Amino acid sequence: MRRFEFVEGSSAKFWSADVEGAKFTVVYGKIGTAGSRKEKEFPSPEAAFKEYEKKVAEKTREGYVEVAGDGVVPVAPPPAEGAPAKADRREKKGPELKPRVAAGEASAASVARAVAALGELQTELASKRSWRRKLAARRAQRALGRLGGLDPASVPELSAAFDAVLARTGRGKEALSLGRALDLLWAVDVAAHGRALSHWRTLEPLARPVALMSKLGEQFPEPELAFRLGSLMLDRPGRGQSGNEAAWARRWREVVPVLQAQLTQQGTTLKKFLQGIDTAGDPPLAARINRMKEA
Question: Quick one: pLDDT at residue 263?
């Protein structure tokens, strides 16, 4: 079983994976603990190996580093004798999340506009006029959204501008609110959220929203699901990236089938999961959880 570890600030966790026949197994948790074990049966060994490769690639993008495992690296199974070459395409797939932004190639001009918009936001964070900060944040979000889901880390100048703005996340007159930060992250590849969350976890004191997102990330190995779920829970009416309640409800409905499938694998239900979210002392979060229960 291959083992990967992520250590940054106060965060120290591991993730291990293996494939045996059509069974895909992962073990994950905090370093020094036995962790949690999950197993999933796939229709074929080929499908299980494909999922294994996908998850390893995701963890690598998030910053996990492979360490010594048991020395056994799974290999792709040979195609079954007489099996159609494209059998995997006919396999029944579970529910999947739709892309958050339209896929496409980011041009040099669009990257330059995004860098400029982020620079403007960086400057306007010092403004005493809230409407100017709000406008600059929306411009930056729109510019990032035109990059086709690009990971900012893949372009040096964009990475520097994006990281500089995200580093201002917090509370205070010249800080970027967590909500605005999530708006920006919604427009780019989910790997950026993993890096931002790792940084936020190092800040003291640990904000409750950050603790919530960390918990979701530990419970759901799929980064995209954890990010969308956290964003929807922390979205505030009239301010968040969803724009309005109808848009929020639509995004929640898109997440529900994938979330329920994950919870079923974990042996629980959506109702029990939502009841387990700690909303004490946080009326906005409590309101969102209630909406999720009603939708």
Answer: 94
Helix (H) or strand (E) holding 7: strand 2-8
Are 241 and 231 in contact, with CB atoms under 8 Å apart?
yes
The pLDDT of residue 87: 45
Give the pair of three-digit tokens for residue 227. Answer: 């990010």
Task: Report cis status (omega within 30 of 0) of the bond before 152.
Answer: no
Query: How far is C-alpha 275 from the chain's CA centre?
Result: 22
Architecture of the domain made up of 2-73: Single Sheet (2.20)
Domain edges within the chain: 2-73, 103-203, 204-295
**DSSP H or E stretch at residue 36:** strand 36-41
pLDDT reported for residue 157: 95
Q: What is the residue type of 234? A: L
Task: Name the stretches of the chain with pLDDT < 70.
Answer: 68-93, 238-243, 295
Which amino acid is present at 132? R
- Dig out the tokens for 85 from the structure: 């070459």
Phi, psi of 206 (to 5 degrees): -70, 120
Tokens of 138: 């929306």
The pLDDT value given to residue 69? 56
Q: DSSP state, 243?
A: -
Distance CA 163, CA 206 (A): 20
Q: What is the pTM of this model?
A: 0.67
